Amino acid sequence: MLPDADDLPEILLDLAVPHEDINELVALRRRLTRDSETGRLLEECVAGLVRDMGEIGGAASWPGDRIAELSTGQTAGGEPGEPGALGRYFAAYVFVAALPYVRAHHHALGVPPEVTRRTLADLGRNMAVHRRRHGRGGVQAPRWLALHFHGELFQLGRLQFQRAHVGEWTAGLLAGTGPAPDAHAMCLSVHVPDFHGPLSPRSCDRSLALAQDFFARHFAGEHYMAGVCHSWLLDPQLKRYLGADSNIVRFQERFRLAGEAGEPADTEPVQFVFGNPDLPVADLPRRTALERAVGDHLRAGGHWFIGHGWFPFPTV
User: Fold this and answer.
1) The sheet that has 307-312: what strands, in order across it?
2) Choosing a second label site near 234 at 20 to 30 A (CA), which of 31, 152, 242, 307?
3) Rounded Cα–Cα distance for residues 223 and 216 (Å)
4) Is 164 helix (H, G, I), strand (E, B) or coil?
5) Rounded distance, CA 75 to CA 61, Å?
6) Partners of 256 in beta bridges
7) CA angle 64, 54, 68 (to 5 degrees)
8) Residue 188, H or E segment
9) Confidence class of residue 315 from pLDDT cuts 50, 70 and 90?
10) Rounded to whole angstroms, how far apart are CA atoms 9 and 76?
11) For 144-192, what is each residue's pLDDT tens digit?
12) DSSP calls for 239-279
C-alpha cells in the first residue's frame, strides 16, 4: 500500500513533512512492510480512514491502543531501531497510503489541486508540532488529521473549515444568542492552524470569502447555518490584557459568544503559545503581549477557558 523507498521522500515533501523526519520514515518503511502483522494493521487503518469518504463522521475510530503496542519496538521482525519510533510514525504511513483515495475524492468534487495540497500539508505542520513539544519525530494528533484525509476539513487561506453537524450540545449553546438551531443542522467549524503567520483581520476576511465560494461551488447540496468556533482564542478574558487592535480581539469580535465558562483549560493557551502544555507556569516567557497575558494571568491565580462562538454563515 505504500510507495517504494525511492518515491517516498518526494511524497513526504509534498505533505510538508519536516526534512529531519524523512530519512527515519524511509528507513522504518522497510521494517513496516516486512512484518505481516503490522502490515495488516496498516491496511485496516487505511480502509477505516477512506471508507465512506467525505461522509461526516464516516471514518473508523483510530485504533490507538493497537498502534501504541508498536511503541515497544518488538514488531517488524524485531529489527533494531529507536524504541517506539514505528509507533510514533505509524500514522504518517497511514496517511501516505490513503493519499490516492483522498486526492481522487477531491478531484471528483472539483477541488482545486492547490487546496488539496495545502489541506493535506497539515500532516507536516502536525509533525513539526510533535517535534517542538517532544524533541523527537512523530505525529501529534492522528484523529485530528483523519478529518483532512477523510474529506471533512479544508484549508482555505489562513483558516481551516470543517464540515460538521451542529450537535445537541452546540445547539444548546447557540440557542442562548439566537434562534435555536436543529442539532442535525450543518455548520462549518472554524479552526486556526499554527505556523501560519498572524491572525490578521485581512487574512480572516480572505479565508471567509474563499470558504463562501468554495463550499457553494463544491458542496452545493449542503447548507451551513453558521460558522462555529470552540477555542481558547475566544476566552473573553483576553480582552483584559490585549488592546482593541489586537488580532485575537478582532477575531473574537467576529463571533457571538455563547455559553458560560466551563472547566478550566489552562494548558490550551500554554500549549499553543509556548509550544508545550507542561511548561512550569512560573517560567513562562514574557516576550510578547500574548505571552505576558497568558503567563501573568496564570501566575496571578487565574484560569483560562475554552470560549464558544458563532456567526451566521453567508449563503449565495
Assistant:
1) 153-156, 159-165, 186-191, 224-231, 307-312, 256-257
2) 152
3) 9
4) strand
5) 22
6) 310
7) 5
8) strand 186-191
9) low
10) 21
11) 999 999 999 999 999 999 999 998 888 888 777 776 678 888 999 999 9
12) GGTS-TT-HHHHHHTTSEE-S---S--THHHHHHHHS-TTS
**Across 134-177, where does the E strand assignment appear?**
153-156, 159-165
Cβ distance 73 to 61 under 8 Å?
no
| Cα–Cα distance for residue pair 261/236, rounded to 1 Å | 10
Whole-angstrom distance, CA of residue 86 vs CA of residue 173: 41
Question: Is 137 in contact with 131 (CB distance < 8 Å)?
Answer: yes
On whether the CB atoms of residues 58 and 52 are closer than 8 A, the answer is yes
What cell numbers appear for 205 in the block?
476576511
pLDDT, tens digit, 9 for 90 and up, residues 99-113:
999 999 999 999 999
Amino acid at residue number 45: C
Residue 231 DSSP code: E
Q: What is the helix (H) or strand (E) element at residue 225, kind and residue range?
A: strand 224-231
* Residue reference for cell 524485531: 78
What mean pLDDT is predicted for residues 189-214? 95
End-to-end CA distance of the chain: 41
246, pLDDT greater than 70: yes
The pTM (predicted TM-score) of the whole model is 0.92
Antiparallel, parallel or unpaired: β 224-231 and 159-165: unpaired
Distance, CA of 49 to CA of 252 (rounded, Å): 34
Task: Please name the helix (run of DSSP H) or strand (run of DSSP E) that holds residue 10, with its range, or none.
Answer: helix 8-14
92 vs 14: CA distance, rounded Å? 13
Left, alpha or beta for 308 (phi > 0: left; psi -120 to 50: alpha)? beta
Note the helical H segments in 15-112: 19-34, 36-50, 64-68, 85-109
User: CB count, 10 Å around CB of 192?
Assistant: 17
Sign for the pseudo-dihedral over CA of 80, 132, 99, 141: positive
